[in-house]
């Protein structure tokens, strides 16, 4: 199997695991996938996506469960570069997130993993109920909930307040939001701060020293295998942008399902690029890159019309694929 220069560089930067060990683990991933397919009557555990949310994030049809791309040098190999666990108890990208029982505004659940089983999920923390920025954040997240649900992404929010406080506060949230909203997602009560500690939102060593130990504004986006794919941390004084969170979910799902990576400012990227014949093209706006692990053989097989951006190094790593071609795959 021929790997691109970028892929070889990524493998070389993982000293704890050689290329052969990554390949071995990749083979294990494929074997588990095949075993799962056999156990499910010859089909994948998760059916293919049926639609992609549009650039303005107004989802028009319900997605089915997201499925990892089967391109051997694509998403499975790329994901294998991230360890599933940490050595120091921290939670990092690629790690399996901690499971927990949760008491919420929509009832109690024995397992967060079971609650989100086979789906993408957002765990969204706020410092405290009855505070100004948090009130606007929950309202704006409620406005985006239908888009996220159409992307088959579950949402749960959390603070250290009790569930009764959440329920009382939600009346203010609904009243303050300028649009008519329903809070369709559960809000978790984490009074003992056990979930906040497990996810690194509170330092357990500071619990007794802080007069009012509150969670930071955190966002965890978790894939169907319960792996952390993205995390955002904000201070209490800055509210989060819900459009960016929806954009991140869409980008992560596309990468997971299509073995691609989204450029900076996607989908408003590469609006005008130079072509080999000296002309310029506007056809690549919203295009994406192939993952650096994708081999040239599989790139040509799955994305035969990809465009290589010319750079002084002459290394073929800026491989653009038009959005329409990605959706067709």
SSE arrangement:
Elements lengths: L4 H8 L6 H21 L35 H5 L22 E3 L2 E3 L2 H4 L4 E6 L6 H19 L2 E7 L3 H14 L10 E3 L4 H5 L18 E6 L5 E7 L7 H17 L1 E2 L11 E2 L5 E2 L6 E3 L5 H7 L4 E2 L10 E3 L1 H6 L1
Parallel strand pairs: 3-4, 4-5
Antiparallel strand pairs: 1-2, 3-6, 6-7, 8-11, 9-10, 11-13, 12-13
List keywords for this structure.
about 325 residues, alpha+beta, single chain, 13 strands, five-stranded mixed β-sheet, 10 helices
State the major sheet.
5 strands, mixed
Strand order, sheet with most strands:
5-4-3-6-7
Mean pLDDT reading? 83
What is the overall shape?
A: elongated
In terms of quaternary structure, the protein is single chain
Helical/strand content category? alpha+beta
Fraction in helix: 25-40%
Count of helix runs: 10
Unreliable runs: 15-63
Task: Give a short summary of the structure.
The chain has ten helices and 13 strands.
What does this structure look like?
Helix 5 (132-150) links the parallel strand 3 (120-125) and strand 4. This protein is elongated. It has a 5-stranded mixed beta sheet, with helices on one face. A 4-stranded antiparallel beta sheet has the order 8-11-13-12. It is built from 10 helices and 13 strands. Helices cover 32% and strands 15% of the residues. Helix 5 crosses helix 6 (163-176) and helix 5 runs parallel beside helix 8. It has 329 residues and is an alpha+beta fold.
């Amino acid at each position: 199997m021929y790997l691109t220069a970028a892929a070889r560089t990524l493998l070389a930067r993982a000293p704890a695991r050689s290329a052969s060990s990554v390949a071995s683990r990749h083979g294990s991933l494929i074997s588990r996938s095949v075993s799962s397919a056999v156990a499910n009557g010859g089909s994948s555990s998760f059916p293919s996506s049926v639609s992609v949310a549009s650039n303005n994030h107004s989802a028009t049809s319900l997605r089915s469960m997201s499925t990892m791309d089967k391109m051997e040098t694509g998403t499975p190999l790329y994901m294998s570069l991230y360890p599933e666990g940490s050595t120091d108890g921290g939670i990092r990208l690629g790690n399996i997130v901690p499971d927990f029982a949760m008491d919420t505004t929509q009832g109690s659940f024995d397992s967060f993993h079971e609650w989100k089983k086979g789906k993408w999920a957002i765990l969204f923390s706020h410092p405290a109920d009855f505070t100004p920025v948090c009130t606007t954040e929950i309202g704006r997240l409620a406005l985006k909930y239908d888009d996220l649900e159409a992307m088959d992404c579950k949402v749960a929010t959390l603070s250290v307040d009790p569930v009764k406080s959440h329920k009382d506060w939600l009346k203010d949230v609904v009243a303050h939001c300028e649009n008519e909203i329903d809070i369709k997602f559960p809000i978790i009560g984490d009074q003992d701060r056990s979930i906040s500690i497990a996810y690194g939102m509170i330092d357990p060593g500071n619990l007794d020293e802080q007069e009012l130990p509150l969670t930071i504004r955190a966002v965890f986006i978790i894939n169907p295998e319960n792996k952390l794919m993205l995390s955002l941390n904000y201070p209490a004084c800055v509210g989060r942008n819900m459009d960016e969170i929806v954009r991140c979910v869409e980008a992560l799902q596309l990468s997971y399902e299509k073995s691609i990576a989204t450029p900076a400012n996607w989908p408003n990227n590469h609006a005008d690029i130079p072509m080999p014949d000296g002309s310029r093209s506007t056809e690549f706006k919203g295009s994406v890159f192939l993952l650096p692990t994708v081999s040239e053989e599989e790139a040509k097989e799955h994305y035969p019309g990809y465009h290589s951006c010319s750079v002084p190094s002459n290394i073929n790593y800026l491989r653009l694929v038009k959005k329409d071609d990605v959706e067709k795959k």
